[in-house]
Amino acid sequence: MRLFKRLREWWLRLRCPTEFLCDNCRYDYGQACTRRERPNALKCPDYTPRG
Predict the structure, then answer these.
(1) 10-51 residue pLDDT tens
(2) What pLDDT is attached to residue 6?
(3) How many structural domains compose the chain?
(4) Domain range holding 39?
């Protein structure tokens, strides 16, 4: 499971061209994301790149 987590984080870093995941996340608007890390998240289980 730990290897899967590291691979996913590596993939997210490749997919996100900005420093923070929130800048390129599908859920970065209004009340769609209520995580306390927003808007400066470096890791997020809900991150989905914009289409």
Answers:
(1) 877 777 666 788 888 899 988 899 999 898 888 888 888 887
(2) 84
(3) 1
(4) 1-51
Residue 20's Cβ-count burial label (10 Å; 0-12, 13-18, 19+) is: middle
The two counts, helices (H) then strands (E), for the chain are 1, 0
DSSP-based three-state secondary structure for 28:
coil
Q: Tell me the C-alpha distance between 4 and 10, whole Å.
A: 10
**Structure-token pair, residue 9:** 């984080």
pTM: predicted TM-score of the whole model, two decimal places: 0.61
Cβ neighbours for 33, distance < 8 A, ≥ 6 positions apart: 22, 25, 27, 46
State residue 21 phi and psi, 5-degree precision: -60, -35
